[in-house]
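Example record

The entry below shows one chain as it appears in the dataset: sequence first, then structure tokens.
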Amino acid sequence: MLLLSTAAALCAVPALGRAAETARQVAQAEQAVRFQIPAQELDTALTAFADQAGLRLLFASRDLAGLRTAGLSGTLTPAQGLRQLLSGTGYTWRFSDTRTVVLEKVAAAPGVVVTDPVSVEGRRSSRDPGATEGTGSYGGSVTTVGSKMPTTLRETPQSVSVVTRQRIDDQNLNRLEDAMRATTGMTVLTNDQGRSSIFTRGYELDNALVDGLPAPLSSVYGTQPDLVMFDRIEVLRGPSGMLFGTGEPGGTVNLVRKRAQDRFTATGSATLGSWEYRRAEVDVGGPLTEAGKVRGRLVGAFQDRDTHVNVNHNRTKVGYGTVDIDLTENTTLSLSAARQEASINPFNGLPAYASGQLLDVDRSTFIGADWNRFRNDITDGFAELEHRFENGGRARAAVRYSDRDVDFKYAYSRSAVDPRTNTTGLTVLARQYWEESLSADANVSLPFNLLGQTHTVLAGVDFRRYQQKLYQGQVNFGPAINIYNPISNVAEPATPFTTRTENEPIQYGAYGQLRLKPVSPLTVLVGGRLSRYENTSTNLVNGAVTTFTEEGKFTPYAGVIVDLTDTVSAYASYTDIFQPQTATGANGAVLRPRTGAQYETGLKGEFLGGALNAHAALFRLTDENRAIADATRPAVSIAAGKVRVQGFEAEVSGTVLPGWEVFAGYAYTQTEYLTAPPGQSGTFNTWTPKHSATLWTRYSFQDGPLDGFHVGGGLRAYSGYFAQSGAVRFEQAGYTVADAQIGYQVTKAVGVALSVNNLFDTKYYSRVGGPTVFNFYGEPRSAWLKLTAKF
């Protein structure tokens, strides 16, 4: 009822007053921008203008056919630039809102917009056509995760969600797991902040891309990045083997870096919240030379917080710097470095009764030790060289280096709760982990004309190498812990490292894709990848070495897109991926890789001039060659397991009305074994709910006595899920969590927002794991107050 009432109130809000709108339009038109647009077709020049000015342009492309412009060069206001570009064309322009410009024929009556408008949207970050910061929108229109080149969501024949910078800021989505909880079809298994497991379409994400380059993503070692460094998150659901080689078939997440901008900006925020939550962010950057050909940016964050669980504590420090250098007007070198340090008093969740009964205890209950500790240090380096051809093509070479150092030791419950005494025992796990990863990619995309249509070819090569070393020890110890009155001041036992291993996977690949348009409404995509994978594993205790090589693995790709109208397209695609295994067969050799293949079909739409995106998809994914135990030969595996995941997804994101942003998604996901290991059958991923929905919306009042205020709210709803231990299930029934927010723009530069999470204080288990560990209560009602300043 609250959400329905809020929606009704939002729909009834009056439009922005004429005087305020005029003032904003004038301010937008008078901000100087550095333009560099060569002489070319007018519609192509306007696309470049929109990108460099950070504006959305509405015009009918066919009406501009045959018109050319002499181009634009220098530092000008958008108003001056438009006058120069449109001189002698018979067109004029006007602002329809603070960032939207409408082109009109000079003879048109005032206020008349040309028919069939095409939306062309630009951003301040002039080298990133998909940048979302500064747009105020919950809708992203351009992605690279499905093609390695800037492509609209409608031109990508798979389900893609974009978490924009505005949503990250509004909802306080500070870590990747926070953002994924608020994204269509994603499942997050709760753990310490930064250590939760993220699943999509039944499979855990095992890599996190940064601008298209991978490094391992591990819940165990807390390698999730803080989001202060990124402009947006692009989530591709389904296999992505053609572009990225090995991986799980459920999907891929690409985090896009904040880039140095061509004008000075400075922002900062301070947040206080429940359980002594404190967070501060700062972001400063701009041109470093008078001509603006060298631009820099520095970003930092500090966070310190307890949680609703006793003893559990988390502290994070983040620093990020980047420099963009224009070597020529069309060639840019980008360099960046990041450092993230995390210190946690970890909590491994609650135990349960062996019967399947979950505990009904205070949500602050902690099972562990005061000396529980976890620390990781992550250093990331990135270099990119990009050249933009005059015909719209692009060449790019990039390299990413990441170094992770993790050290932890913590105690947690080792047994189911004894129903006679309500007690459990303790286990301590200690690990040291070192990882270096290097990934590189070089590709070129070029348009070409054939039979009156424009087509695109993409070709590239990539490389990745991971060097991983692990020391581990584990012991059972300590007194019995009463779950209703737990103690944590237990003695710390010695935990020698009994396991020492080293792992070095290396992958090379070459890939290509053709994007063909046989006729105007139809686009056909065909592509493939040839990969070589090798892995060397060494037992550092006994010196045993295991090697595995996969030569000449081909991964195909195909897709088709049909434009049904100017705003709606239908699509279908086939995608593939492979994932090496470690299990061995009767001959002692490692089993051949698993393969994941998916068929997907759906509809995509761009509405309101591209301000609002929508998609709906049906998919079926099959995962084959899974290692299962050979029933006739103990300790031997065979590649015979098979899983099927299928379902439906729908999503709407972007601007509904001026000031009204929305993100809403629904997913139905069914996972099942078709051929299962002995003793297993039925559901494959029991933690993935069949039904899940997420909603977040915000309305900013723009007139009248409430001018400057905004209200927001949303929900996350899930059907039931369970964990299986033998014949026993540990179940959580379906639940819904609602959140709310109110904010006020104190001045043009300063704003404040108050948010309440879990508004109705719903009590539920956000994760169920079994009889011993990984049963986590969801966070109780909490609040945070955020002050933001932008200059």
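Notes for this example: Helices lie at 2-11, 18-29, 42-53, 78-86, 165-170, 176-181, 241-244. The longest strand covers residues 453-482.
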